[in-house]
Amino acid sequence: MGGIGKTTMVRAVYARISREFEFSFLLTDVRKSVEESSLLKLQKQLLSGIWTRKANLSDPHEGATFIRRLLGHKKVLLVLDDVNHPSHLKYLAGNQDWFGSRSRVLITTRNEHLLIQHGVERRLKVEELNDDDSLKLFSWNAFKRGYPEEDFLGL
Predict the structure, then answer these.
(1) Domain boundaries in the chain?
(2) Comparing C-alpha atoms, which of 16, 122, 14, 24 is closest to residue 75?
(3) In DSSP terms, which residues pair with 135 in a beta bridge?
(4) What is d(CA 36, CA 30) in angstroms, rounded to the nearest whole number?
């Protein structure tokens, strides 16, 4: 389900643990990025964080090989947000031997089947908040306290 906080959650986790890794990458809105440009452009964006020269890649297969070669022995944190196609996982995250030991890949998606198909064993389903918790969260953000102002309670 969209709008329940998956992106917010992975951004917070990324901010909290990214310093523990040699290389950290946060690719948000993967679905939209691929739709608006290409998977190859997203690979180049990822590589620009580690490769000082311009990566002259011709296709996603070559990009995947390059990513695997550069990061294969590094401790990496890779966050892929809003993945909606198996090719996103295949060409951006590959499999367990793409990155060094103790690396982590965090993926958000609305389609759990994609994760299963890719062989992701550890999955967390984000549940939507109940009405009371939703109101508290909204109030903390809107009013800086756990309850709304009296004038806004009806809204």
Answers:
(1) 6-124, 130-155
(2) 24
(3) none
(4) 10
Could you tell me the two tokens for 80?
A: 């892929």
What type of residue sits at position 28? T
In whole angstroms, give the CA distance from residue 50 to residue 72.
13
The tens digit of pLDDT for each residue in 3-29 reads 767 888 899 999 999 999 999 999 999
Can you give the pLDDT at residue 50?
81
Q: How many CB atoms are located within 10 Å of the residue 58 CB?
A: 8
What are 36's two structure tokens? 């608006």
Cβ contact 115:109 at 8 Å: yes
pLDDT digits (tens, 9 = 90+) for 117-145: 998 989 988 888 888 888 888 888 888 88
Beta bridge partners of 78: 25, 105
Q: Which residues contact 106 (CB under 8 A, 6 or more apart)?
A: 10, 13, 14, 77, 78, 79, 80
Q: How many CB atoms lie within 10 A of CB 128?
A: 10
SS (H, E, C) 85-103: CHHHHHHHCCCHHHCCCCC
Q: Report d(CA 154, CA 150) in Å as an integer.
A: 8
